[in-house]
Design brief:
Strand order of the largest sheet: 1-2-3
Order of helices and strands: HHHEHHEEH
Structural class: mainly alpha
Strand content: under 5%
Radius of gyration: 16 Å
Length: 170
């Protein structure tokens, strides 16, 4: 999958897309999956319920946020790649998702398993979108976005949160 060009996504998403290094998209996606798994599996015991400041998410909440965001981005990619030009996707209210997530009683290992299951589904979806259809668009909150842009957002969003994990939680 080729890197998206300006105009294929809301400029807000540049903050994530620009974090993705050059290289084969699928190699980068695989490496990103391994890095997320490794970082969360090696987290020191007792850190999963830590928030680095008042009103900030815990590590568990951050991982579930990463999973929820990937679900939303993948669904948008599905709509675009299937030609649903009529779909009007709303923006995602990450704080609303976090408040309403059922996270109590769930541990880091369970949340990581869920992330990896969602990522596996994302890989299957993106691997089977043709180069032509990867440029098709869906409307998200008044901006059009392509599946390939969403693929890069998925990787960049995970990189963003891994950096936060390293700098603020560890």
């Amino acid at each position: 999958m080729e890197r998206p060009v300006t105009g294929e996504f809301n400029p807000y998403f540049s903050r994530y897309i620009n974090l993705v290094p050059e290289g084969s998209f699928y190699d980068l996606l695989r490496q990103n999956t391994e890095e997320v798994q490794s970082r969360f599996e090696s987290l020191p015991k007792g850190k999963e319920n830590l928030a680095y400041a008042p009103s900030k998410w815990t590590v568990n909440q951050m991982l579930l946020h990463m999973t929820d965001t990937e679900r939303v981005m993948s669904f948008r990619a599905l709509l675009a790649s299937r030609g649903d030009r009529e779909a009007e996707c709303p923006s995602m209210d990450q704080d609303l998702f976090a408040v309403n997530a059922e996270i109590n009683g769930r541990n880091l290992a369970q949340l990581l398993d869920e992330f990896l299951a969602v990522r596996k589904s994302t890989v299957y979806l993106l691997e089977n979108i043709s180069a032509e259809k990867s440029k098709w668009r869906v409307n998200v909150a008044g901006h059009s976005v392509s599946p390939r842009a969403l693929g890069y957002v998925i990787i960049g969003h995970a990189i963003h949160h891994l950096r936060i994990l390293e700098t603020r939680y560890l």
